[in-house]
Amino acid sequence: MLAEQRAERILKELAQRRAVTVTDLCQVTGASEATIRRDLTALSKRGKLSKVHGGAVLAGGEFHGEELDMETKRRLHTGEKDRTARYAAGLIGDEDVVFLDAGTTVLRMAEHLGPSRALFLTNSIECACRLMERNLRTHVLGGMLKAGTMALIGAETLAALGRYNFTKAFLGVNGITIPQGFTTPDPEEAAVKSLAADRAQEVYVLADSSKFGQVTAAAMFPIDAACVITDRLPDPRYRDYTDVREV
Fold this sequence. Notes:
By secondary structure, the protein is α/β, with parallel strands linked by helices. It has helices at residues 3-17, 22-29, 33-45, 70-75, 78-89, 104-109, 125-133, 155-161, 187-198; strands spanning 19-21, 50-52, 55-57, 63-64, 97-100, 119-122, 137-140, 144-146, 151-153, 166-172, 175-177, 181-184, 200-206, 215-216, 218-221, 227-230, 244-246. The strands form five sheets. Strands 7-6-5-10-13-16-17 form a seven-stranded parallel beta sheet, sandwiched between helices. A three-stranded antiparallel beta sheet has the order 1-3-2. The mean pLDDT is 88.
């Protein structure tokens, strides 16, 4: 397959899926990883895509109505997510009451948590299992289990969540812009994240740099309602509106 043919195929895959990994592209083009990485670099320089660790995503500033599948999200930005999760885990003290949602970066926090007397609450089945493996005090909210993310959502979840107060909440997000604030594709997940933020003294959004400039369907809360922990801030204007910590 010629270089231009590969480029067309890469952009076609990206248009359909919004995010692709190098492994995915090797399978659909038959090219080597080294060749695909060179193609991604060339397309990134032309502004056709945004190159990220392990693959590529659509160029910034687009509206996304649907959510990537969990497996794809896990495989993108792995290094950035790990640094962000490690920093966030270090913010938790023994006296904290902590809410953790089902975001992929938030899930990684559990891998960096040591022994603690903190109380953890979550609407994520996977997160609860990871916390229990570390013998941490864990409560799970009830509700309807969402396929794919294994997150508990719905009226029952919101009712249970409303009975708690948190010292800290750590939330995942799909998009961050100054006008629209923090957004996520699923309105029911957005409702859980929004209520958790309302019940918390300190709110932290964990987001890799690709989330800036992106907008999805459901609003969570305004840009000034949370501190953002990220690997890199692509636009310094965000600092005029909220606390951003680069790690």
